[in-house]
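Lab notebook, bench 4. Still working through the backlog of constructs that have no structural model yet. Next entry is a single chain of 344 residues. Request: give me the structure tokens for it.
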Amino acid sequence: SHVGRALSKRENSSISPKSIVGRLKLVAKHMRIGRQEDAHEFLRLLVDAFQRSLLHGIDPKIDRRIQETTLAHQIFGGYLQSQVKCSRCSHESNTFEPLLDLSLDIQAGSTIAKALRSFTRPEMLTKDNRYKCEKCSKLVEATKQMTVYRLPRTLTLQLKRFSSFGGGKISRHVEFPLSLSMKGYVSANSPERGPYEYSLYAVLVHSGGSCRSGHYYSFVKSSAGVWYELNDSSVRQVSERTVLGQTAYLLFYERCPGKGDSRSATKPVEKPAAELRATTNGHGRDIPSAKPLNGQKPADNDYGKPVATASDDMEALLEKKLRLAEPTESKEKTKKKHRKNKHR
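Model written out:
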């Protein structure tokens, strides 16, 4: 296990992530070892690889709502709501889509709070961008607002530092807190009743002038509340002040348990209720209501039953899942090689 390997290493030594790097193409076929790649893109591809392996052997036609109850979604997943409100009759049309992270525009914002307010700020749909109201049956002016309908257990924030054109980078510091409240960014019709508070536990930094070059390193908080800087093979203890002074690219927050909260990674996340049935007005993705399996609704304790629990060693789990995803041809070669060595 990872813990055993860490404890068996001598002081000031490091552990090489060979089991992950050696199977990089199983996560991202276009990525190459030693080439500059985007950390956020790799994170998304890694979570997608988790999702594929967790659904290994399951009918791909299974309802999407059920697919979104895997361990990957229970850790990182939530839901966004896009609401369009008619200015004439006040009819509200809601559409939903899975949330695995939030990408925040930092062009005009100097703090995470400002970036989140900008993300959830209502947008007016006027003139050529008018909305066809289902109730009025005509093009009308409306307001459109994006909010968080269901909060994730682990909130991942990406700060948009890189330009899509030219590869430029926004290098200025954006203030982020150790404790973050998401209460002001949750949908008014959300079934969420708290807790809304999150605690920062990891920060990823990009050092360099553009997206085409540079270096990634991170800061992680231990279970004892001590912060460490992880820079390749170098690990050193740092202060909270040092962490908060970083020009962060990715921020990771964990949801704080509420009073008497008994949530665990093995308990299925409650899915949005009847109001989650989306409309088909072209504004965002639709999320269909869950369909029964074999004509029967699955029991609550089986609905989205996780493949692994939080107590499992995640590095060993990743290695196992990536091995499951290996092509059959590669597996057969490995078996033949093993049999050949055995008979020597």
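Notes after review: The two ends are 30 Å apart (CA to CA). Residues 201 and 221 are 5 Å apart (CA to CA). Flag for follow-up if needed.
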